[in-house]
């Protein structure tokens, strides 16, 4: 054993020394190939669930950012710089996301990041990017505390922005949506994650304020797939609808099992269930279920139609999904910021503060409306739309600006 | 009262699933004293086998007659995996220290999960399971208690499987051979029992029941995914220990008790510690209490005492 140790120590030291040399050697090549007409590299990170249950949404985010970057490069948006996309998988999990964020933050060429999908993951990645002064623009985080802190009035991280609106507006819209249909008694169920819990909380506040009654409040365990005991707990209270805070991998089976157990009332959820997979999992009985989503349907506006056509033409392997437009706008917000901040910069790392400042000041017409941020880093556009399952598809019902 | 009956129905349904899987743990343990932690994955493979059979042969059909063929597909998939697993992973370790096959089992479990995730089309996320007529659809209602059709199938499947298994173990030559091997392997071998064959049969029997459980869970939850075996396997193992590991009746009783305990915890424990968030805590608390006062499990472990 002893003799092994004697060998091991020098070997480890040598390996460390070699690897240290290696990283030091790479930097000039990758970072500052300035002069001689060669372009310098700046990277935009994507951090989203690229595998697992939520990968349909994550892949849409990744490709939409890739589309924005391809177009910017083709138009030579930032003279002297070549933009690259660096995609990292967070699996929709906070710990994996934190590791991914650390990896991106350690790359000196990363100027900004689009992500995450889940509010609970962003909670963990925010401080990592903030410490490195890297601007983070989320296309999908609707948890209000991410920009407004626990007390609702203090911005926790100056580096965090989002192109989608928050659950406060989404919950309020959903409450009004149900009340307008004469539904006064609802049951709420959530999955105990930041997103689901928040959504149910804001929905409940708005629903009670509007004269409705929450007859029973329950939670489910997102790792399980049998919700019969919870459904039995909810059914005797005779709700006229069930409001679910969470995402489609659980919401689909929940809707199916609710109706198979004889609770034939609509299930309503937020943008987390607004995905075709929900209808696949929920089956034929999902007819009449509701969802809200941020913004107007992408194909309802001219800019949205143009984006979808360009996305189609780029032939990505997966569709743009629910957050495609928001991701495209998020990437463009970063690119707009880079145009200003990288003009006279020698390298990315020293320009990061300028990038954060510049992104905070952007204002341009995006796919989802005018892209501009308020003093908290929230988007100024607060449009929410309601959808209904009809004929096995999500169909648009109405939208409203609650700004 | 209706609430109580309703949660009992839910509990018995869930418990039947646990029981079907738990039998596989117990049969194998009774014969070779091995906790086959990959058994949850055998259950998962069964569900995917049924799904694959349906997708390949009957895509779009939901008539009842396809169900037996789906079950057959599930059984073939599960039994094949279990038998191959025994042959390549456990048999070479027959004489090895106890820990070696245990770690191997965990390794196989992870390998099978990842294999399905990587190679089954679309298995990276949940896949909808076909809804077969008669056994799924609108719930039945008895005096205010709603019973899912798939629940009737699940409980029925447990009753039939348990009866068949009981008959097999007590009334066939092979069954007697199994009892002999579980009592004393060496003597059984001297009496002319082919021990290797009996062990393979034990694995196959467990896989058979797990396959049926896989189909039942698919029908109940209307979806399957590659991780479904992990939690189900853990719960079923708990059920087997609760009832008395190595004891087939014990596995059935343990499964039902565990399922009912979970459902009642959701239904009747009020406040912060109730609801589905805490049901696993109560289920495992029950296990601990039973093991403190009755370490051999509810019906008693059938571990042979060699003096």
From TrEMBL, chain B:
Pfam families: BPD_transp_2 (PF02653). It is found in: Cell membrane. Its main location: membrane. The keyword Transport applies. It is a multi-pass membrane protein. The chain crosses the membrane at residues 12-35, 42-59, 65-87, 99-120, 150-169, 198-220, 226-245, 252-269, 281-304. Keywords: Amino-acid transport, Cell inner membrane, Cell membrane, Membrane, Transmembrane, Transmembrane helix, Transport. InterPro entries: ABC_BtuC-like, ABC_transp_permease, BCAA_transport_permease. Belongs to the binding-protein-dependent transport system permease family. LivHM subfamily. This is Branched-chain amino acid ABC transporter permease. It comes from Intrasporangium calvum. The lineage of its organism: Bacteria, Bacillati, Actinomycetota, Actinomycetes, Micrococcales.
């Amino acid at each position: 054993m002893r003799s092994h140790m004697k060998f091991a120590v020098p070997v480890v030291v040598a390996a460390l020394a070699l690897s240290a040399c290696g990283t030091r050697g790479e930097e000039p090549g990758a970072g500052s190939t300035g002069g001689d007409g060669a372009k310098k590299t700046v990277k935009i990170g994507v951090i989203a669930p690229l595998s697992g249950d939520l990968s349909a949404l994550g892949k849409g985010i990744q490709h939409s950012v890739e589309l924005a970057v391809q177009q910017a490069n083709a138009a030579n948006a930032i003279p002297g710089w070549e933009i690259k996309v660096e995609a990292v998988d967070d699996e929709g999990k906070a710990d994996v996301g934190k590791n991914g964020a650390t990896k991106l933050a350690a790359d000196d060429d990363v100027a900004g990041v689009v992500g995450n999908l889940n509010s609970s993951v962003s909670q963990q990645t925010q401080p990592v990017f903030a410490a490195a002064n890297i601007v983070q623009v989320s296309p999908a985080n609707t948890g209000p505390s991410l920009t407004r802190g626990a007390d609702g009035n203090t911005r926790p991280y100056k580096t965090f922005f989002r192109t989608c609106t928050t659950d406060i507006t989404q919950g309020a819209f959903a409450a009004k949506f149900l009340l307008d249909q004469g539904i006064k008694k609802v049951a709420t169920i959530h999955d105990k994650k930041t997103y689901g819990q928040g959504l149910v909380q804001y929905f409940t506040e708005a629903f009670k304020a509007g004269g409705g009654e929450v007859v029973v409040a329950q939670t489910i365990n997102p790792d399980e797939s049998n919700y019969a005991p919870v459904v039995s707990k909810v059914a005797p209270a005779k709700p006229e609808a069930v409001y679910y805070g969470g995402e489609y991998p659980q919401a689909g089976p929940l809707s199916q099992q609710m109706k198979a157990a004889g609770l034939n009332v609509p299930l309503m959820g937020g943008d987390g269930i607004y995905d075709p997979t929900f209808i696949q999992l929920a089956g034929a009985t999902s007819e009449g279920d509701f969802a809200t989503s941020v913004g107007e349907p992408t194909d309802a506006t001219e800019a949205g139609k143009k984006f979808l056509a360009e996305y189609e033409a780029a032939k990505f392997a997966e569709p743009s999904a629910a957050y495609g437009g928001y991701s495209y706008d998020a990437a463009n917000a970063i690119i707009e910021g880079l145009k200003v901040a990288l003009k006279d910069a020698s390298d990315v790392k020293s320009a990061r503060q300028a990038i954060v400042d510049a992104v905070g000041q952007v204002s341009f017409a995006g796919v989802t409306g005018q892209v501009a941020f308020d003093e908290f880093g929230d988007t100024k556009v607060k449009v929410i739309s309601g959808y209904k399952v009809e004929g096995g598809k999500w169909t648009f019902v109405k939208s409203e600006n609650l700004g | 009262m209706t609430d109580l009956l309703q949660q009992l129905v839910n509990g018995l349904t869930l418990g039947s699933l646990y029981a079907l899987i738990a039998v596989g743990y117990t049969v194998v343990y009774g014969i070779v004293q091995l906790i086959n932690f990959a058994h949850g994955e055998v259950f998962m493979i069964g569900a995917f086998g049924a799904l694959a059979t349906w997708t390949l042969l009957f895509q779009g059909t939901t008539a009842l007659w396809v169900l037996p063929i789906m079950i057959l597909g599930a059984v073939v998939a599960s039994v094949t995996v279990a038998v191959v697993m025994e042959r390549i992973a456990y048999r070479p370790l027959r004489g090895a220290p106890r820990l070696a096959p245990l770690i191997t089992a965990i390794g196989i479990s992870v390998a099978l999960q990842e294999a399905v995730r990587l190679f089954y089309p679309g298995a990276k996320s949940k896949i909808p399971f076909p809804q077969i007529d008669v056994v799924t659809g609108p719930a039945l209602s008895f005096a205010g208690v709603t019973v899912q059709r798939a629940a009737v199938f699940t409980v029925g499947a447990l009753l039939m499987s348990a009866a068949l298994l009981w008959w097999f173990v007590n009334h066939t030559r092979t069954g007697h051979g199994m009892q002999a091997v579980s009592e004393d392997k060496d003597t059984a071998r001297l009496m002319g029992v082919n021990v290797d064959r009996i062990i393979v049969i034990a694995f196959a029997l467990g896989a058979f029941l797990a396959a049926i459980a896989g189909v039942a869970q698919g029908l109940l939850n209307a979806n399957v995914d590659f991780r479904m075996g992990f939690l189900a396997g853990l719960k079923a193992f708990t059920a087997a220990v609760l009832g008395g590991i190595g004891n087939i009746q014990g596995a059935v009783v343990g499964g039902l008790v565990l399922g009912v305990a979970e459902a009642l915890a959701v239904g009747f424990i009020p406040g912060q510690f109730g609801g589905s968030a805490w049901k696993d805590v109560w289920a495992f608390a029950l296990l601990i209490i039973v093991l403190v006062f009755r370490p051999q499990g509810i019906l008693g472990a059938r571990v042979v005492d060699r003096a």
